[in-house]
Every structure is written in C-alpha cells, then in structure tokens.
C-alpha cells in the first residue's frame, strides 16, 4: 500500500505542484483546501503525512489537528507549513501535535527529506 500524503493548502498553484511532485515520488496524494475538507479527508482514510498550511479560508489549520485527534485519526506525522518563523507560532504548532514546522517557501529537497525522515 502506498504512503498517503494529505496536502492541506488553499493555493491551487502549490497543491498542483506538490501533487505532481509527490505522485512522481511514489506517494498517494490527496488535497484539501479548507479546514472542513481536510477533516473529512483525514477521517475517511488513514493519512501517513499531512502537510498543513495554517492560514485557510475557513479557519486555522491547527483546528484540523484537534478535530482529527477527537476522531482518533491523526496522521503519523504532520508538518506545518507557515510564513511565520516566530517562536510563538512554532510553539503553537508543536503543542498542537505537529512533528515539525517548515517556514515557507520550503525548498522541495527539504520537504522530501522531512517527509522521509518522519516516515522512517
């Protein structure tokens, strides 16, 4: 069974690029652009890695972590992706259960390395 990645991001340019990249790397890819959609997709089928944008049209991406935790559907690893590099944002992500926090723009090589590291 392929490793499943859920990309939670509201930018179609980013999700399209990531979808191609991860599909070519051999992953099963799913995409969600809102908190509600991510909770639904994350609850439907087990997710190995979730790439989580924090600023979504219908709320804070960290709300997804809490909703999935309540449903006992947390991914093996969640990597938060944010434009904020401050200590408070990082702490909030880690306290919510994110395995790591990546500051946008994230180099593709670093993103792939982080995913592999958290799947090992």
Could you characterize the architecture of this molecule?
By secondary structure, the chain is α/β, with parallel strands linked by helices. It has a single domain (4-119), classed as Rossmann fold, CATH 3.40.50. It is built from 5 helices and 7 strands, in the order βαβαβββαβαβα. It has helices spanning 12-24, 35-44, 62-70, 87-96, 108-119; strands spanning 4-8, 28-32, 49-53, 55-56, 59-60, 77-82, 100-103. A hairpin with a 2-residue loop joins strand 4 (55-56) and strand 5 (59-60). Helix 2 packs parallel to helix 3 (62-70). It is globular. The mean pLDDT is 95.
CATH class: Alpha Beta
Q: What is the residue-averaged pLDDT?
A: 95
Radius of gyration: 13 Å
Q: What is the number of helical segments per DSSP (H or I, 4+ residues)? A: 5
Quantity of strands, as a count: 7
Strands of the widest sheet, in order across it, are 2-1-3-6-7
What is shown here, in short?
The protein is built from five helices and seven strands.
Q: What is the secondary structure topology, with strand pairs?
A:
Elements: E1 4-8, H1 12-24, E2 28-32, H2 35-44, E3 49-53, E4 55-56, E5 59-60, H3 62-70, E6 77-82, H4 87-96, E7 100-103, H5 108-119
Helix pairs in contact: 2-3
List keywords for this structure.
24% strand; two-stranded antiparallel sheet; alpha/beta; 5 helices; Rossmann fold; 120 residues
């Amino acid at each position: 069974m392929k490793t499943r990645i859920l990309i939670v991001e509201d930018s179609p340019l980013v999700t399209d690029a990531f979808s191609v990249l991860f599909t070519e790397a051999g992953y099963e890819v799913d995409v969600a652009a809102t908190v509600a959609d991510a909770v639904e997709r994350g609850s439907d089928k087990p997710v190995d890695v979730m790439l989580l944008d924090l600023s979504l049209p219908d709320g804070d991406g960290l709300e997804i972590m809490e909703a999935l935790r309540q449903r006992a559907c947390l991914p093996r690893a969640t990597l938060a992706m944010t434009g904020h590099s401050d200590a408070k944002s990082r702490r909030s992500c880690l306290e919510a259960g994110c395995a790591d926090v990546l500051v946008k723009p994230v180099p593709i090589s670093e993103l792939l390395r982080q995913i592999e590291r958290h799947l090992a």
